[in-house]
Amino acid sequence: MDLGLSGRTVLVTGATGDLGTVVARAFAEAGARVVTGYNTNREAAERLAEELGNGSFAIRYSLDDPDSVAAAVREIERSHGGLDVLVPLAARLSGRRPDADSFATAPPEEWVPFVEDNLLRTLRTVQLALPAMRERGWGRIVLVSSHLARNGRAGMEFYGAAKAALHGFTRSLMWDAGASGVLVNVVCPGVTLTERVRARMPEQAREAERAATPSRTLTRPEDVANLIVFLASAANGNITGETITVAGGR
């Protein structure tokens, strides 16, 4: 199947993370030029871009610096005429409130910046990338949520809120973007066997998750990446506004 990604420019923010690296490689294998967005690990992002080839390059994208978000999009527009595909994976990972706090007592300074980084920065990136997609009459935006937005977990109220908001955002954005040939969707992974999960989740807990999964298989980063690439490709002719779960039936 020709995915129609050859020569397309794809921005993957958080590209040096466990999932981001796999996603970037999957796009490069499909022939895309991948812009590897990084926060502090410039060397890793540049090494990855060099490995990917196809004119791929690294660019700074920091959740802590809103100006860098606009600067990244402007640079891609200047050098390549704008983005064809946006996959904003950059996130603030520590979403669990301190165990000492209840939801009712968690101070705003602990959770407001987290929601801003994980939701508002993503929305702003989409807002900045959309005009060039509209101008060319083609574009794909794939957001990444979490099974916690559907299933929840104690202490994860703020993370769940930020991720669940992407679902509602997408259902409305499809009306604004669709007539211009821009499709927008959400991928919602279950427990995914990234290096971070393997390091932090005990084997016994992983086995319990596997036993509770209808497919009896935990999701691999490659499973998530393959779906993202499909939704971001020309092979996706008319899927938009959807949240698609990759969790083996969970």
In short:
The protein has 9 helices and 7 strands.
- Widest sheet, order of strands: 3-2-1-4-5-6-7
Give the CA-based shape: globular
Global mean pLDDT: 91
How many distinct helices? 9
The string of secondary-structure elements, in order, is: EHEHEHEHEHHEHHHE
Count all strands and give the number: 7
Report the major sheet: 7 strands, parallel
> In terms of structural class, how would the helical and strand content be classed?
alpha/beta
Give unreliable regions as ranges.
Answer: none
As a whole number of angstroms, the C-alpha radius of gyration is 18 Å
Q: What is the percent of helical residues?
A: 40-55%
How far apart are the termini?
A: 29 Å
- Percent of residues in beta strands? 5-15%
Layout of strands and helices, then pairs:
Layout lengths: L8 E5 L4 H12 L3 E6 L3 H11 L4 E4 L5 H15 L4 E4 L19 H29 L2 E6 L3 H4 L5 H21 L4 E8 L5 H6 L2 H9 L9 H11 L11 E4 L4
Parallel strand pairs: 1-2, 1-4, 2-3, 4-5, 5-6, 6-7
Helix pairs in contact: 1-9, 3-4, 4-6
